[in-house]
């Protein structure tokens, strides 16, 4: 697996972690609002917003890191199988 694919998967994992963290923090703000007041709830909502912004930023970075052209590890395997079957990786007919 090449390093771009590894970076892509790592960044997707970070985005998911940020989104789960945002959901947990928002739920905590809803649960704590009646008990501790608006200041505590506002603090947790603020942290949840930072987690969402972090997920967006990491998602943008991932957009530029991910493998280009829709190629993934599976594409290399499929190309090797096609080459073994036909002795060529060309997929279009000659003109």
Description:
This protein is mostly helical and 95 residues long. Helices cover 80% and strands 0% of the residues. The chain has three helices and no strands. The two termini are 34 Å apart. The model has no long low-confidence stretch (mean pLDDT 79).
What layout of secondary structure does this protein have?
Layout (H helix, E strand, L loop, with lengths): L2 H34 L1 H28 L7 H14 L9
Helix pairs in contact: 1-2
Order of helices and strands: HHH
User: What's the assembly state of these chains?
Assistant: single chain
Uncertain segments:
none
| Spatial shape | rod-shaped
Largest sheet: none
Span from first to last CA? Answer: 34 Å
Q: Taking all residues together, what is the mean pLDDT?
A: 79
The tally of helices reads: 3
What labels describe this entry?
95 residues; mainly alpha; 3 helices
Could you provide a short overview of the structure?
The chain is mostly helical and 95 residues long. The chain has three helices and no strands. Helix content is 80%, strand content 0%.
